[in-house]
């Protein structure tokens, strides 16, 4: 395997004219080859606008083995001696239509293919989800895994590919959301310490003649319903090495070393995959049952407090939930500080050689959460998330380095948590910049993170504007699932904000697309074995 590989991400506009779409694909493949890329990734649904009259039309317009579209792409890969990843709608025998990834090798042969496991919105009307996981393809460029768009808005698909050995993840998108580029794409690299090459669409994502009417129904300006571009190449630490503009056909390239993805260690030496405990993640593979609880309170005043001496003042000032850093204060001292208030505080303690989160009220400890994963020489003793019901909703505690793992927060969502308190100590910039906001975003969880003085912290609240295909209430910013963020400066001893427990009950990002229940639960064997 070559130590350094030049890769490219290409963005195009694709409408209803299949011939024009094919010409655009070939044009950017040529452009990538001219810049000496050995691999190029193209967007999702390269062959046709993702909009059809019905399922039959989608099947009729889909690609087929040996057709003009796929043959032309294969010929171009062979002409340039390069690897090409595209995503198209593809017709299978028996009438099934998939959102299919194809990886062509330098001989023009299909080296690997897979269908999209999690469909978005109207895609459910036209396509069928994947019946099986996609392959990890061993190539001279590294071990490659493929996924598409909505599969990158949740963690399971990329995570499963990395657990099966993928070093380089190829993501094809068809999205108008700005939070793809600044959150969902780079976090999949950082949380897995793998490379990501992601290509998004530009131009209208809906029929031009229907765009004004659809935009009016949604309360979204028409220009926001265009592909958001910003195709990019991301390093295993979350650094974006190359990014295309938001608009216009473009190709970006970067030189990557796939072997860097084999090092999964944090600065303290912790291997972020080796600490996983698959035996705990069984609920992720269980059939969805929906939330069993109604929504919590519309608003909850919360605070991050780094000086335990200030807990009394903050509680009497109206904060109902106070989160302190790890090992910040004894439960008895916290209970005394909360005396006479309905507030609860969260920190951690060492009990019998184990790291344990505690939820404390004026009467003392009301809940304990043992750490689920090994950290700092302490053996994990937790076996599940233990939520606690409080007057405003359900609280879960994620203890210390448990916050590194997306599986932990998925477990919290599956027990219907509304708010998650996270006493934590970060080691790398991506953890607060990408990791924890994504844990809030992909699970619809309000998250309150308290770190020691000298480190930034943050509070992540759920927005009331979320579900697509329902009318947007406030000005549309282009960001769909990004939480409302309150940053806590490294030197601040107290920071307050308001979160929205009730919004955790709404997980529908679009029609028939639930962020939690829509996880590919049948296909997560790599997570749980």
From TrEMBL:
Keywords: Hydrolase. Coiled coil: none annotated. Residues 5-258 form the CN hydrolase domain. It holds the Pfam family CN_hydrolase. GO terms for molecular function: hydrolase activity, acting on carbon-nitrogen (but not peptide) bonds, in linear amides. PROSITE patterns: CN_HYDROLASE. It comes from the Bacteria. The keyword Membrane does not apply. InterPro entries: Aliph_Amidase/BUP, C-N_Hydrolase, C-N_Hydrolase_sf. PANTHER family: BETA-UREIDOPROPIONASE (PTHR43674:SF2), NITRILASE C965.09-RELATED (PTHR43674). This is Putative amidohydrolase. It comes from Actinoplanes digitatis.
